[in-house]
Design a protein that fits this description.
With 532 residues, the chain is of the alpha/beta class. Strands 1-17-18-19-20 form a five-stranded antiparallel sheet, covered by helices on one side. A five-stranded parallel sheet has the order 7-8-9-12-16, sandwiched between helices. Helices cover 35% and strands 18% of the residues. The protein has one domain. α18 links the parallel β21 and β22.
């Protein structure tokens, strides 16, 4: 950005408006094989929402799984400038980066799926953490990834044998290790590699009644790794992991217990995974979960196994206000956000598109900042779910400062993105301005005004350029792909070992596997020096 003292710098009058850093989304499925397969599976989704071509923007389609250009435009209109794609099969990294390149307006990064990678399981079964760390470093650098992602640890490998795991101590077929050992082992690897983000975890038993106990046990199992420097583990879309009950009839909220734990510990961060009452598309590497959802709904279903690396599944879904289970899920996400006292520990997401499309963020902003907004929705939901909800007893309404943390500063800090999430020296010139006066507007009473303001930013500034004004895209810009260039002490040993393994395990050659620079139009590598 130009020096503010430069008389040639453009001046914008933002008197009576809220000025925040550009929004940061820590977890949103925006690119890659599962997203593209979802588009193919659901042609009906294309026609629910569309983007008309303008003199500066391209046309596009899609409601829950919008096309690439449309994704960038819609994020920018809401004042977002950085989005993390949370699920990438390493073998399909090239396709993922091709789609990320196609998304304008935002910087982005992606997390390779490593929790059920065969070589992770082999090294863990041998107890060889340092050698595992070297190979994980190779995988992150080769796929141009940003963080270690684990989904249903052990469950994806078990799914290859037609099974799943149900506890942290179940044995994984062939490897004779447990989900607990996967989580602890990769958290140790994360520390050895000095990666900026903690391990990004989708818990075991996600989406099952009673799974809050698994989530709590997972948080507790990494306590011994906490050293006070930064969180050890990030549990994503925690709403889906916060159910009490023995079955769907007795489903309840475990938000109070999870919030109590988070309020007393500093080694865990979470994001909401807020449910929106709408039609959407669920997609995850948790193949056995998606099979269960297919059996529950009878909807269309895609299942995929990616060689020695991971699995995936896709099922269309509709969250309904009158459904007891869906209304309970809606309540749980908000309960978590409001009961966790420190906004630096919990972040606003929908697990797009699993809980609903990211374009619903303004609705969540209204619910978080206004008890009146929550009450208006509570009146419309299933009566049984309403009677069991904790929301009527929660008076807390987030202020704009807390909201800025949950949607920007906290997410950037958790990701270790030092140039994101704040305004000042060393920050990217990414800024969002919202046309609402914080001194004259009462969010509690005027929640519709807040929702409207956060739907269309008055200004979105990307890298010092005004790219959106009053919700209209003025200038389409390309965003950078951020990735980690992890350096280990002896890369040649890893290379020789991987060449042998590629001949034994994969259908592609070693030399054809890594993502080369020409797949990244604007590359922003972050050098990381590992302790191995």
């Amino acid at each position: 950005m130009k020096n503010v003292s430069d008389h040639r710098a453009k001046k914008i009058d933002v008197s009576g408006m809220i000025v925040m850093p550009g929004g940061v989304d820590i977890h949103s499925h925006i690119a890659g094989s599962e997203v593209n397969t979802g588009r193919l599976l659901r042609p009906e989704d294309h026609f629910k929402d569309s983007e008309c071509k303008t003199s500066v923007t391209r046309s596009g389609v899609g409601y829950s799984i919008p096309s690439t250009f449309t994704t960038g435009y819609r994020y920018a209109r809401m004042g977002y400038t950085t989005v993390m794609n949370p699920s990438m099969p390493p073998l399909e990294a090239k396709h993922t980066h091709e789609e990320l390149n196609d998304i304008p307006m935002i910087d982005k990064a992606t997390y390779p799926l490593l929790g059920d990678w065969w070589f992770v399981l082999e090294y863990l079964s041998q107890g060889n953490i340092e050698e595992l760390a070297r190979h994980v470093a190779w995988m992150i650098s080769s796929t141009k990834g940003y963080a270690i992602k684990i989904v249903n640890p052990g469950g994806l490998e078990a799914w290859g044998f037609g099974h799943n795991v149900t506890s942290l101590d179940d044995q994984i077929p062939h490897f004779c290790i447990t989900p607990r050992e996967i989580i602890l082992g990769l958290c140790r690897v994360n520390k050895l590699l000095n990666l900026p983000h903690s391990v990004h975890l989708h818990t075991n038993n996600l989406g099952k009644p009673g799974n809050y106990a698994t989530a709590l046990e997972t948080m507790k199992c990494v306590e011994k790794l906490a050293n006070g420097e930064k969180p050890v583990l990030h549990i994503t879309h925690c709403q889906f992991s916060a159910f009490t009950g023995d079955d769907w009839r007795t489903l309840g909220s475990g938000a109070e217990e999870i919030a109590k734990y988070l309020n007393g510990h500093s080694h865990i961060t979470i994001d909401m995974g807020q449910v929106i009452f709408t039609d959407t598309t669920t997609m995850t590497a948790d193949g056995p979960f998606q099979f269960g959802l297919y059996g529950l709904t009878g909807n269309k279903w895609v299942n995929h196994d990616v060689e020695t690396e991971t699995s995936a599944g896709i099922v269309p879904f509709h969250y309904r206000k009158k459904s007891f289970a869906h209304a309970t899920q809606w309540s749980i996400g908000l309960e978590l956000a409001l009961l966790v006292k420190d906004p630096w520990k919990i972040y606003m997401t929908t697990d797009h598109p699993n809980g609903g499309p990211f374009t619903a963020y303004p609705k969540i902003v209204a619910w978080l900042t206004s008890k009146k907004a929550r009450k208006a929705t509570l009146k419309k939901i299933n009566p049984k779910a309403r009677s069991r909800s904790l929301l009527p007893s929660i008076d807390r309404e987030l202020g704009f400062y807390e909201l800025a943390i949950m949607t920007r500063a906290g997410q950037a800090k958790a990701l270790g993105l030092k140039h994101k999430g704040h305004l000042g020296v060393g920050a990217d010139a990414d800024i969002a301005v919202y046309n609402v006066n914080p001194h004259k507007t009462d969010p509690s009473k005027e929640y519709k005004k807040i929702r409207k303001a956060f739907k269309h930013a008055a200004y979105t500034i990307k890298s010092g350029r005004v790219v959106v004004k009053n919700g209209e895209v003025l200038t389409p810009v390309e965003g950078a792909t951020i990735w980690l260039d992890v350096k280990v002490s002896d890369p040649f040993k890893v290379t020789a070992d991987m060449k042998r393994r590629f001949r034994e395990y994969w259908t592609v050659e070693y030399d054809n596997y890594p993502v080369t620079d020409h797949y990244l139009e604007i590359s922003q590598p972050i050098p990381v020096k590992a302790d191995v």
